[in-house]
Amino acid sequence: MTQTWLTQEAADRLRGELTQLEGSGRKEVTAKIEAARAEGDLKENGGYHAARDEQGKMEARIRQLKQMLENAHIGTPPASADGKVGAGMVVTAIIAGDEMKFLIGSREISSGDLDVYSEKSPLGSAVLNQEIGAKVSYNAPNGRQISVEILAAEFYS
């Protein structure tokens, strides 16, 4: 399992979302289910089925947030002495001729100002553990080979 580093801001934001979902979120969806149930026949009740789907998605998100917060390291990751790209780093690279900055990790840690690529994505796995200055390539989902030159990598804050 890859270590996930969360900034304190990201952890606080996720804890807030979890609190909202476990509190008022659950109450709202339960009220929707009860209101739809009161309408009668559940087989043909679209509102009931939509509320149950919403409940399922919300419970899945609650489990995801709990797991992420339990397993995450909160704070600043240790400085990378080896000069290699790792999870939680903002990478500056030339990709197919264009300079680009992106974050390697989970969308949960980003405040939305950067594109985020998972360590398991084609781009993420190509640059992960590579040294600054390395030139690598990866196969895009459409089958095209894309070249990447890593210019810099620093921890996201």
How many independent structural domains? 2
Overall form: elongated
Secondary-structure class = alpha/beta
- Multimeric state of these chains? single chain
**Helical segment tally?**
3
CATH superfamily of the largest domain: Transcription elongation factor, GreA/GreB, N-terminal domain
Note the run of SSEs as H and E: EHHEEEEHEE
CATH architecture of the largest domain: Orthogonal Bundle
Would you tell me which CATH topology of the largest domain applies? Helix Hairpins
How large is the share of residues in beta strands? 15-25%
Residues in helix, %:
40-55%
| The CATH top-level class label of the largest domain | Mainly Alpha
Major sheet strand order: 5-4-3-7-6
Main attributes of the structure:
157 residues; Chitinase A, domain 3; two-stranded parallel sheet
Q: Which SSEs are present, and which pair or pack?
A:
Layout: E1 5-6, H1 8-38, H2 46-71, E2 73-74, E3 89-95, E4 98-104, E5 115-117, H3 122-127, E6 135-139, E7 145-155
Parallel strand pairs: 1-2, 4-5
Antiparallel strand pairs: 3-4, 3-7, 6-7
Helix pairs in contact: 1-2
